[in-house]
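Review the following:
>
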Amino acid sequence: PLRFVRCKTLSSYEAVILSPEQAFAILVGLPDPEKTLTLLAASTGLRISECLGLQWQDVNFNGFLIHVRRTWTCGKVGLPKSKSSQAPVPMHSLLAEFMRVWQMRTPYPQPEDWVFPSFRLGGSKPRAANMLVEDYLRPAAVKAGVIADGDPCRFGFHNLRHSLASFLVRSKTDPK
């Protein structure tokens, strides 16, 4: 009987949608590797869990593709959210260059190493998304004037995903 029940949910959440100029202003205020991670999320629409779950073997520099094979959420490796999440993601040449430079600089450049490792944990695990937001992304958004200091609005990597989708729709491009 529950199959026919429809629950209407209401949420007061309104995504902060960034313009390309605002996203760029945030990027400029970030150090590496946070800049590369943010560019990856903003230019591909990948979920932060998918970005953090990447290993160097998932990045195809020759074919300009990123293969999402795992996620990193709540300290655990998981599977991508859906079958379509596992489709190869195109990588712009600018992003590829940032990724190559980061691979040359990181102490963990091997194929099975995490692209965005936790240095505190000796590269054995990826970074924590919530710490990246609080320590880097949100302060950069405040510095860029995208959100006000102390503004209680929810702002994180998911806003980059929403912003890319909105930009693509406005450009009459199918986000899929």
